[in-house]
Amino acid sequence: GAMLMAIRLRGMDAGETLSLTRAMATSGRALAWPPAWHGLVVDKHSTGGVGDKVSLALAPALAACGCKVPMISGRGLGHTGGTLDKLEAIPGFRVSLSPEEMCSTLEQVGCCIVGQSEELAPADRVLYGLRDVTATVDSVPLITGRGLRHKKAAEQLSALVLDVKFGGAALYPTQDSARQLARSLVEVGAQLGIRTVAVLSRMDQPLGRAVGNSLEVLEALECLDGGGPQDLRQLVTVLGGVLLWQCGKAAGAAQGRELLGRALDDGSARSTFEAMLGAQGVPPDTAHRLCSGTPVQRRQLLGTAKVCEELPA
């Protein structure tokens, strides 16, 4: 805790941030992919915001476009929700996979979304939780290290896009502070040999219309149906378009956005999401009904919060 607060108050220079990132990345087992995947392994990292369910739609959409997406995600941090918490609202979903299980899932499905473990970035798992209780969530060096050490652990990563959010519903309130973080992330990414692009996205209000684990899963499914809130779809296609361009699947970011949008509209991204659910422990019947059912059926599968209170309009 004292070290984290010292880093937040005193900061770190570029060399120190790079050294911290490398040390954290090598605290566990490094991932290695088959040579045939070279140039196809991509990932996205977000600084987090209220209602941010982008990963749930982006990972399967990228996989449907031919990429390999090994996402190592986190839980809630500060006032922002965690991707793992949202996925665990789905009955049976496993966020803990061994490296061998990850490789098998990537081979069969094309994407997986997992958490830190004793094998994968164990030191990060400890620091991630400590940052949440020591008021050091917004430290630029710690965010930089956390955002990139997973990507360094995932060897042969071809491209990384960073969603750096700013505004009232984000960790960073101003565009200038977000730009400072984006520069730090891109610089360290380049030094690690990762092709890195940062996208600044305004977040003065929650992304989409839903906030809460089950509700955000439902909204991500709407996006995978080719619908859902326009701001969510736009961010998913912008970030995915950059990655498809960076890994050579598209001639430019604009074509990449078009290809990713097509995967959302034709159902291939939703089918990939269903396959990912099955590969990560969700019973096949549940996965199918969740992805193919009506909105009412989907809500019944995910259940409701333990504490509910009606608010008269």
From TrEMBL:
Gene3D superfamilies: Nucleoside phosphorylase/phosphoribosyltransferase catalytic domain (3.40.1030.10), Transferase, Pyrimidine Nucleoside Phosphorylase, Chain C (1.20.970.10). The keyword Ubl conjugation does not apply. It comes from the Eukaryota. One of its GO terms (cellular component) is cytosol. GO terms for molecular function: 1,4-alpha-oligoglucan phosphorylase activity. The keyword Glycosyltransferase applies. Pfam families: Glycos_transf_3 (PF00591). Residues 41-269 form the Glycosyl transferase family domain. Keywords: Glycosyltransferase, Transferase. SUPFAM superfamilies: Nucleoside phosphorylase/phosphoribosyltransferase catalytic domain, Nucleoside phosphorylase/phosphoribosyltransferase N-terminal domain. PROSITE patterns: THYMID_PHOSPHORYLASE. One of its GO terms (biological process) is pyrimidine nucleobase metabolic process. Belongs to the thymidine/pyrimidine-nucleoside phosphorylase family. Homodimer. This is TYPH phosphorylase. The lineage of its organism: Eukaryota, Metazoa, Chordata, Craniata, Vertebrata.
